[in-house]
Each structure stands twice: as C-alpha cells, then as structure tokens.
Amino acid sequence: MNNKLKQILASGKPAIGSWVGFSDPYSVEMIAAVGFDWLLIDMEHFPVSKESLRNVLMACKGSESSPVVRVPVNSRDYIQTVLDLGAHGVMVPMINCAEDAKRAVEFSRYPPLGRRGFGPTRASRYYQDGGEYRREANDEVALFVQIETPEAFGNAGDILGVAGIDGAFIGNGDLANFMNHGQTGSEAVQEIVDRLIEIAGKISMPIGLPTWSEQECNHYVQRGAQLFTIGSDMSFLVNGARGDLSKVRSLLETTKQGLVETLKK
Length: 265
Description:
The chain has a single domain, classed as Phosphoenolpyruvate-binding domains (TIM Barrel, Alpha-Beta Barrel), CATH 3.20.20. The relative contact order is 0.12. By secondary structure, it is an alpha/beta fold. It has helices at about 5-10, 25-30, 50-60, 75-85, 100-110, 130-140, 150-155, 155-160, 170-180, 185-200, 215-225, 235-265, and strands spanning about 15-20, 40, 65-70, 90, 140-145, 165-170, 205-210, 225-230. It starts with a helix and ends with a helix. Helix 3 links the parallel strand 2 and strand 3.
C-alpha cells in the first residue's frame, strides 16, 4: 500500500481533508473526487455502521483522498475491522493518557509493535497481496489520536511520546464542552490549542484540528499545525442549499418590488 497522507505529513506540508458523515456511496464518491488529501469518515457521531463503512471505503477507491476512519471507541473490535476493510488510517477519540494511546497502538499495529490480529480481507485485495500488506502495514497505516479533554491536555507530552502514533488531532469542540466554555474560539480553549501545537512541534509530531474557513486553516498553518479538515459533506450541502435559496429569494423579492413600482406608475 502507498499512504499519500503519511507522505504529505512526512514532507512537512499541510494535509487538507474534510469530514464525511454520509454513508451513501454516491455522496462519498462525489466528495472523494473533489481532490482532498484525506477524508475523515466519522463513525463516532454519525450513523456509519461497519456494513456501510465497507461501501464508503469502496466509494473512495481510486480517488486522491486517503480515507481515515474515526472509530466510536478505542477498541480492538472497531480498529481491526476498520483497517481490515482497507482504511488508510484510523483516528481514535478520547485518548486521555499514555495507556489509552498504547492500547490504540496495540490494536492497530502488527507484532512486534502491537497485537493486531491478521485478517486484512479487503485491505490486502482479498489476500492477493497478503504478505506484502503484512510487511508494510505498520509503516503505511496511519494512527491518529484525539486530544479533546483537559485531562488529555495535561498528559499530552506522555501521549505524543508513545511509539506507533503518527499524529494527533485536537478536538477543540469537546475541549470547549468539557471546559464549560461552549465556544471553540474562547481564549481559554485557544490557549490550550496553541500549547498543544507547540508541544507537538517540539517532537516533530504532526498535529491539527478541524477548521471551517480558509482564514482559520491558514491561521493554524502559520502556527505550525499540519493536519486539517475544512468543512464537511453535511456543511457543504446545507450551506450551499441555504446560500442558493437565499439568493433566489432575494432576487425574487427585488423583482417583486420592481413590478410593484412599475404598476404604481
């Protein structure tokens, strides 16, 4: 296998992705064809089952986007299945300490680095490339851990120092939630985000977070972060529909006002 995302991160360049919550193959295939460096398929907060994940990953095949799956929990069951189905990487939420991170490594890496069981059905092209996949998977599969609680922030140095981790993704939404600030843009949350980027930078560990505008993404690139999402399939659909609807209604209102003025004359 050839993991484009890991190559981009190793080069020091920013990797730009997007969230995927829809499991319909048509919608996934459309967003995969846009040209993102990677796609973050979310099994934690969206109804993406193991069965539908298979179809999602198939819809990504042949695209330029490396599919990374955020699993619901840090478990062997989910992590092994996701990787066996052919995901290029896995993102594990709620990593709060080094032991949590070590478990994620154990479940996602073959011995001697971990204890992942061997069964990469789709990942190895149905065992046509079984030997090659076994030899390369530990180097090519990406493991990202999420730091998204004050506890995790306090243990960030230990978490990021665990061998087998390829990067971290800051859950600034949950940071705000657990800190009772509610807003990711609050000064307290931003201070932690900046500090996490600094900690990761000192050990050359790729780190990033969700962004929702080109300005926000550029801001964090300038601070040294590398791993980003910009928008999501859901936000693109809703914002695009709302924007076009607003434009049409505004135009029709203008036209209506013009007709009223004409009739008055």
